[in-house]
Write a structure and sequence with these properties.
This protein is mostly helical. It is 60% helix and 0% strand. The longest helix has 44 residues.
Length: 225
């Protein structure tokens, strides 16, 4: 179960997020809507209009947008609490009316005060029911917010994981095809060291004659005395 800090963090992240971004996430989010499970005909008492209860349930469901059975259960509790609150308000007014009518028939100078003294226990019990109903309503709202924050955070995480999934690498060519491509590839151009040297070759001569390079006889070394 998530802690209060985790729930609050998920709620803040959900408010900052723009929602699902992938096509799959948007399609899933568009289907996330459950109708309330309230049966308007069986949840009313004489004097109440089932159409009003159904309209209330539809408005609350459209506002809170439950997307799972657990969320819908909390929405149903909220609808019942709202309807019970309206019922208790009417009940309180009826208690006051009957008590004051009795006081008026007795010609009491202060029919409202006398009416309260005539029905203190009934009004006290009704106050307790109203307080309990409000606590149940607030508890259902907190639980619904926790469920929706966790669900929304999970949907955003799944969309982010789907977007970051790497695409499959291209299939490498077979070894035979690679060998064929290497054989048919053109030969690389010759390097400068392999190119023909334009400088004319130096002519080669045979052994020099005794006359020297210019054809004159070499002078004999002087004789010593």
């Amino acid at each position: 179960m998530a802690t209060d800090k985790q729930t609050e963090a998920n709620r803040q992240n959900a408010q900052k997020s723009t929602g699902p971004r992938t096509a799959e996430g948007k399609a899933r989010s568009s289907m996330n809507h459950f109708k309330t499970g309230i049966d308007a005909k069986s949840a009313i008492i004489p004097g109440e209009d089932p159409a009003q209860l159904q309209a209330l349930a539809d408005r609350i469901c459209a506002e809170l947008k439950p997307a799972t059975e657990a969320e819908r259960h909390q929405v149903d509790i909220i609808v019942r609490c709202d309807w019970q609150a309206l019922r208790y308000v009417r009940c309180e007014a009826e208690i006051w009316r009957r008590s004051m009518e009795y006081s008026i028939r007795k010609n009491e100078p202060n029919p409202m005060a006398e009416g309260y003294f005539l029905a203190p226990k009934n009004l006290g019990r009704l106050d307790l029911r109203l307080e309990k109903n409000e606590r149940l309503y607030n508890s259902a709202r907190r639980e619904l917010e926790r469920l929706q924050a966790n669900r929304f955070a999970a949907e955003v995480f799944e969309d982010g994981a789907a977007e970051s999934t790497p695409q499959p690498a291209e299939t490498e060519a077979p070894a035979e095809e690679l060998g064929s491509n290497l054989q048919n590839a053109p030969e690389p151009p010759a390097t400068p060291s392999q190119a023909t040297d334009p400088t004319p070759a130096t002519p080669k001569f045979g052994p020099e004659s005794a006359s020297g390079p210019l054809g004159t006889p070499d002078e004999a070394p002087p004789k010593s005395a």
